[in-house]
## 1
Amino acid sequence: MKTLAPAPSITDQVYTSILDAICDGELEPGARLTQDSVASMLSVSRQPVGQALMLLKQQRLLVDAGRRGLRVAPLEPAFLRSIYQLRQALEPYAATLAAANATAADLARGDALLAAGRKALASGSIGGLIDADMAFHMHVYDVAGNPLFVDVMGQLWNHLRRAMREVIQHPELREAVWKEHAAIHAAIRDGDGPRAAALINSHLERAAAKVDSALLSPRAAARRPASTRSGSARRGARSAR
């Protein structure tokens, strides 16, 4: 008989439900959440909701809203820039290791991930494109052979999921992303670490610029609380000087 996988706990299910609602845009930045409101929506007790909300707060996806509970954190351009700076420090090295370590099975899995990306591209599914993008990059971390790449970036990908939704609204950018992924995979297949590193670095530079532009657009700015918008404007003015 096959061993049965343990079912997710109620807390895990509540956490995943809230997380997906935040990352999918169902809960927009500034949306307020309380234990009572979430427990009522999900038909669960307050205890697992409280645990899930605290975990999401620790992960910077929720912030305090005074006595009114918590609210969905704004998409902060400065924080996303920091994530992309970290990615540019880690991912070229991960790609170099992946080019040295990739087995035939790893390369076949990469082919399958590219096919899944092209399928999502053809369908126009925003969620499918984001999931496929995440799966491709996590594959590179995994093939690199250093579990810390997966651990560190896995904690940050939920913030990227939120930001990417703003970028992928533009159909003309979607095709370019998957052409770049295909080129990175080809370099890994060829065992060419320097080429894989250079390609993934330029891929991330372009992605960071697109995210920054999208988050500073009037559409995205209008969805941030007024205090956050003014703070971003002051930081932008300082960098302009």
## 2
Amino acid sequence: MAVPTSGALSMKNMAQEALYGTWGSGTITSPISLYDLVNGGNTGGSGNTYPTVNTNCTPNPATRESTPLLQIYKVEQGQTTIGPITLYVNSNQAATASDLSDGDVLFTDSSLQTLFGEWRSISDGDGRYLYQITSNLTSSQRICPDSCNQFQTDSFSVVTINYCDACP
């Protein structure tokens, strides 16, 4: 069962749905932590231990593993290049940097709480993109096997790889 589309919501009813798949029936021990309902367990102080749900939902669960993307540079044509910076991707999306692909989401912190944001060309000629300097990186730390790479992110921090291994 899911949360109804109409009517009053209550923490107790949501807890019953999480534990029993029912709405309005089942024994719940107080207190009820919204953190625990979202992330599972009872580390937020709930009287019950809730199942883990939304394991692929950003930003939940709160404990996720990240993969660092090292030596990343931000380029904007005619401006000073910014970097190196380290960005992060959920390890469920990319276990290593070389697994990064279109559709992955980038973050600025290893706890995957802060989205990186948009970095792409908005109009012709503004030349905004990201790239990785691959010197001193292992093959699993490299987004592309050789040094030629370029990618961008949209307003939701979703990656599009412009090219990898085939310099234009």
## 3
Amino acid sequence: MSRREHQRRYFFEPLLALAGGSLAGRRVLDAGCGDGYWTLQALEAGAEHVVGLDPDPAAIEAARSRLESAGVDRGRWRLEQALVPGARIDERFEVALCVGLMERIGRPVELFELLSGAGVELIAIDTEVSGAPSSFFELSLAPGAGGSGVALLPSREAVIELAAQFGYDCVPLAHDMGSDEGLGDYAAGRRVAFLCATEIALDELPWEEPPPVTPWWRALLDPSLRGWQQPQ
């Protein structure tokens, strides 16, 4: 099974379940759409209309090629090269996908302002997370991050607390991916998916428990162990 197939089972299928089994009748914002894989998944799940935003022109072209090759009605989707956050959005959406986005931006508060302002009721976030054991954003210097080269890597608790500030309940999803090749970041707790909702109850979703905290002296000796211990 490919990484994306694992991801679909991990967070996209639970998202669909919360939405009643499909995205029929819903407008979806794919923030940081990349090559359009999740844009297409949303369309195939019945979304009425999907808008994909990404600052990378090559990604937008790849997404357009993917959607056109799939033969999706052009009236059901639109792609725009735009910074996220930073794009002006005048439309309303019920669902948002933020896959691999939060780890690349330096303005997480503005991201939630954008989503909340667009009326989004259900959000799927899949992101690399900081190992900090409390609500924390770790400075990350990454080429192209948010157009500035600077990103703020959220801890698990930071995502939950930030979502709550905008009226969203938020659950870090448990997974059973194991240590399959290409899934080490999930297995080590360095990557987590979250589902956030304003109206839908999330009580039945399984929570992902954080790995144990790494002693400070071990983190100094081995920076790769910052925050949480790697599972053995």
